[in-house]
Specification:
By secondary structure, the protein is α+β, with helices and mostly antiparallel strands. It has one domain: GIY-YIG endonuclease, CATH 3.40.1440. Helices cover 45% and strands 25% of the residues. It contains 4 helices and 3 strands; from the N terminus they run E-E-H-H-E-H-H. It has a 3-stranded antiparallel β-sheet with strand order 2-1-3, with helices on both faces. The longest helix is centred in the last third of the chain and has 12 residues.
């Protein structure tokens, strides 16, 4: 089963990056569930602005780490290339 790296934009315009097997379910969790990330709980609602498939958890985690080190401008450029 494949994994996805995703970026959501929070209500305060901040960006959050994560990985999941099911993007739709994870976004719903960020917006409504106690399973949402601690960071996004106080910044609801969030909206999906980027997703990228990955072959397995290991490569997804490495890519997530890489994206989390990006500056905001670099993340916005990545998001723009996705649209």
């Amino acid at each position: 089963m494949s994994y996805f790296i995703y970026i959501v934009e929070c209500s305060d315009a901040s960006l959050y990056t994560g990985i999941t097997k099911d993007v739709t379910k994870r976004i719903a969790e960020h917006n409504t569930s106690i399973k949402g990330a601690k960071y996004t709980k106080s910044r609801r609602p969030v909206k999906l602005v980027y997703e990228e498939p990955s072959l397995n958890r290991s490569t997804a985690s490495k890519r997530e780490y890489q994206i989390k080190k990006f500056t905001r401008l670099e993340k916005l450029k990545l998001i723009q290339s996705y649209k």
